[in-house]
Specification:
Number of strands: 29
Protein name: Replication restart protein PriA
Bound molecules: adenosine-5'-diphosphate, zinc ion
Number of helices: 21
Subunit structure: Component of the replication restart primosome.
EC number: 5.6.2.4
Strand order of the largest sheet: 10-11-9-12-13-8-14
Largest sheet: 7 strands, parallel
Catalytic activity: ATP + H2O = ADP + phosphate + H(+); Couples ATP hydrolysis with the unwinding of duplex DNA by translocating in the 3'-5' direction
Strand content: 15-25%
Keywords: ATP-binding, DNA replication, DNA-binding, Helicase, Hydrolase, Isomerase, Metal-binding, Nucleotide-binding, Primosome, Zinc
Shape: globular
Distance between the termini: 54 Å
Radius of gyration: 29 Å
Length: 788
């Protein structure tokens, strides 16, 4: 019987389109096909097939099958989930999972080579002779390679194949990645605590439901970091109109916190089995979490399944790959934005065929077509780099939990400083929790001391307080390494003219231009706009009056160079000349001890292992605390814990000095006392009282346009039809925190709901009755925004 195929197209479209399947072609869901769309041909994925009564169809036919790995059922459900959760068009969600090979890569994927058949061509020409000469040496990988090597056009090669002078042969390609050996290094070297943690972790492979694919609608009770798309079983849709629930009684909350794994009164049905499948691996910096989750990777490979390890991109250092190799005998296959087309395709094909058993990758690796995924690890799960802030606004940690559920495999969330969401999910028993409270090898966590900047003032025009200078001096004199941390790129965050007061501002954004002295330029950190630093003020013409205000890392480097002229100093930030590759090399050099003082932004704060580093100096601990963003405390705490945790990971003990104007601020106090529990307790209580995530749901709508009035008017028109029922609050439109970016004015509407409410379905309704954006107006939806 002929078929009709519903094909989802990787464009910003929400529905699949129907096509007739021509006779002779049999399609299955997940197949990648070529289809006509308007005047052009495009690739799409079969989302559904129906048998159709024989006879004519007025549908346009599918053009043909494309040689690309089909999208598995769990991956298709992930796309559905992603679209439903983020409100992105389903086609845009599909685009994340469907990356089609370019021409040259495709020949490689098809594994077809060409060789001479020995038969002379019917019509010998000079071009044909050249192509045959190249093919005479043996099998050439692909037609286009042969054409290129012979310097002839592809049609010459095709002609020779038609003639029978050349023949196509199947190639056995070199493996794209060597198989890791789960038993290369025995587990005997783990510490007792690590071994116990690994054992608990590996219990997850046998826990929980065998496979959700047999469980029908189970995807609706998936609980991710902040929320689930449909309540989570806490309330039926009839509860939608209930007012926001009052905050829990404090004593109840404390009892819950003490209990650790106790279920909260509000924990939903069907949550409990998540605990055994999604596990928070929480261990202080240097506790050896990596070695622990390597054991889970090993177990996964032993079971013949594939493992995915997600990392914030820059953490993919040679150091990490070497550690993997030490454990598994080979380096893992890696996936990140820097991998070239051909390798990307081969890797995708290898992953789809099940030949690649471990992939270590950045967030986009989550959408690879694994054949039999058996484990997902999200390292540094709290990292904001996991949130994609353009296009489809998704959080890779949350989607990892979803994919794990859909694949029926365990998910490990590793962090020294878990996100509040994950902490709460663990406390409420939705996720399991394994704790490594001490550093590996008896090493101590660094002592952390505050330098009160109100009392210990730096010299005029300087930024290092006297006790900081003394500590650095001592460390480097002892042959140790010091890290000075300031989360500000460039030389100075603001430049003004001391004659007329003019401040240098970006012409496209509502931001100050940042001086980059090395490049002799003023740069916008949001849009990249760059201008030469002028000799005279552009406003009043005064010479020598441009004044840098405040420090960036370059300015600290200048100060350090004056203080320690004979020491090797390096500045590491994302501005490092030469790109990511050079930066990685530089990080290796630091790890090898080839420098005395590192001055860096958050880029050096996280995940790295610098064995010679004993002193960490935080130059402005207060920087992130004043932003007014409710997540500021959490983020600052995580960052400061991470950066101070770089100290003392090698033989010698470490210490950290923290310059602050607010030593009594709860975040700083928790950091100094080493009492992370207290921080989490207070922060969680505050979120709960304010009904903020994960205790309430939040979405941001950013309305932007080239003219301020147009953006604002559209935001207001949307607000007029917001019509929120009880339990939902709509705030705004108000100017977004960055009111102008890249020449677009931005207004923000915030939606805040009780946790029991299905925020997605409210948003869908609201958007449905809102005026359609016209002209250059855009409305971006960010469910669970990271900053709010
Ligand atoms: P974390 O990720 O928890 O901060 P790491 O996994 O990076 O910690 O481990 C910290 C350091 O301890 C690393 O240098 C690592 O090589 C070392 N280490 C951890 N576990 C072991 C082990 N079992 N044997 C030898 N070295 C270990
Ligand atoms: Zn700008």
């Amino acid at each position: 019987m002929p078929q009709t195929a519903d094909v989802l197209i990787p464009l910003a479209l929400d529905t699949a389109y129907s096509y007739a399947v021509p006779a002779g072609l049999v399609l299955a869901e997940g197949d990648v096909v070529q289809i006509p769309l308007g005047p052009r041909e495009i690739a799409g994925v079969v989302w559904g097939v129906e048998e159709r009564a024989s006879g004519g169809s007025n549908l346009r036919p599918v053009t043909g099958l494309i040689e690309a790995p089909p999208l598995s059922e769990p991956l298709r459900r992930l796309v559905d989930w992603l679209a439903r959760y983020t409100l992105a068009p389903k086609g845009s969600a599909l685009a994340m999972a469907l990356r089609l090979p370019d021409e040259s890569a495709r020949t490689e994927t098809m594994r077809v080579g060409v060789r001479s058949s020995g038969k002379p061509p019917a019509r010998p020409t000079a071009a044909r002779a050249k192509a045959l000469a190249v093919a005479a040496d043996g099998v050439v990988r692909g037609k286009s390679t042969l054409a290129k090597e012979a310097g002839v056009s592809l049609s010459v090669v095709d002609g020779l194949i038609d003639d029978g002078a050349l023949e196509a042969v199947a190639l056995v390609p070199e493996p794209v990645a060597l198989p890791p050996d789960p038993d290369f290094l025995s587990t005997a070297h783990l510490s007792e605590a690590q071994a116990e943690a690994a054992k608990q972790l590996n219990a997850a492979f046998d826990a929980g439901p065998p496979s959700p694919r047999t469980q029908g609608e189970s995807r609706d009770d998936i609980v991710v970091g902040a929320l689930s798309p449909k309540g989570e079983g806490e309330g039926s849709s009839s509860e939608k109109t209930l007012p926001v629930a009052p905050p829990h009684h404090r004593s109840a909350r404390l009892a819950l916190d003490k209990e650790g794994s106790a279920l909260s009164p509000r924990a939903g049905r069907g949550d409990a089995h998540d605990a055994s499948r999604t596990i928070l691996l929480e261990g202080v910096t240097g506790s050896g979490k990596t070695e622990v989750y390597f054991e889970a990777v090993a177990e996964c490979v032993r079971r013949g399944r594939q493992a995915l390890v997600l990392m914030p991109e820059i953490a993919l250092t040679a150091q990490f790959l070497d550690r993997f190799a030490a454990r598994f005998g080979v380096r893992p296959a890696t996936w990140h934005s820097g991998i070239g087309g051909r390798r990307r395709e081969r890797l995708r094909a290898g992953v789809a065929a099940g030949d690649v058993s471990v992939v270590v990758g950045a967030r986009s690796a989550l959408f690879l077509p694994f054949r039999q995924l058996g484990l997902i690890v999200v390292d540094e799960e709290h990292e904001s780099a996991y949130k994609q802030e353009d296009g489809v606004h998704y959080h890779a940690r949350d989607m990892a939990v979803v994919r794990g559920k859909l694949e029926g495999c365990p998910v490990v969330l590793a962090s020294a400083t878990p996100s509040i969401e994950t902490r709460v999910n663990a406390q409420r028993g939705r996720y399991g929790r394994i704790v490594l409270p001490e550093r590996f090898g008896g090493r101590r966590l660094p002592d952390i001391t505050a330098i009160d900047m109100r009392l210990d003032k730096p010299e005029r025009g300087r930024f290092l307080a006297p006790p900081m200078v003394a500590a650095v001096k001592k460390a480097v004199a002892d042959g140790e390494q010091a890290l000075l941390f300031l989360n500000r790129r460039g030389y100075a965050p603001l430049t003004l003219c001391s004659a007329c007061g003019h401040r240098y501002q970006c012409r496209n954004c509502s931001t100050w231009l940042v001086e980059h002295r090395f490049r002799k330029a003023l740069v916008c950190h949001h849009c990249g706009y760059t201008e030469r630093k002028p000799e005279a003020c552009v406003e009043c013409g005064a010479f020598d009056h441009l004044t840098p205000c405040g420090p960036g890392v370059e300015r600290i480097a200048e100060e350090a160079a004056e203080l320690f002229p004979d020491k090797r100093i390096i500045v590491l930030s994302s501005d490092f000349p030469g790109g990511t590759e050079r930066l990685r090399q530089e990080l290796e050099a630091v790890a090898a001890g080839e420098c005395d003082i590192v001055i860096g932004t958050q880029l050096v704060a996280k995940g790295h292992n610098f064995p010679h580093l004993t002193l960490v100096g935080v130059l402005d601990a207060d920087i992130g605390l004043t932003s007014g963003d409710p997540r500021a405390a959490e983020r600052t705490f995580q960052l400061l814990q991470q950066v101070t945790g770089r100290a003392g990971r090698g033989e010698r003990p470490g210490r950290a000095l923290v310059q602050t104007f607010q030593p009594d601020h709860p975040v700083i106090a928790a950091l100094l006392s080493g009492d992370a529990e207290r921080f989490y307790e207070e922060e969680i209580a505050q979120r709960e009282n304010a009904g903020l995530p994960p205790f309430g749901r939040l979405a941001a709508l950013i309305v932007s346009a080239a003219e301020r009035e147009v953006a604002e008017a559209h935001g207001q028109a949307m607000a007029r039809v917001a019509d929120p029922p009880a339990g939902i609050m709509v705030l705004g439109p108000a100017e977004a925190p960055l009111a102008l970016i890249r020449g677009r004015y931005r207004f923000r509407l915030l939606v805040k709901t009780d946790r029991a409410i299905d925020i997605q379905s409210y948003l869908r309704d609201w958007l449905g009755r809102s005026p359609k954006p016209r002209g250059n107006v855009k409305v971006a939806i960010d469910v669970d925004p990271q900053s709010f």
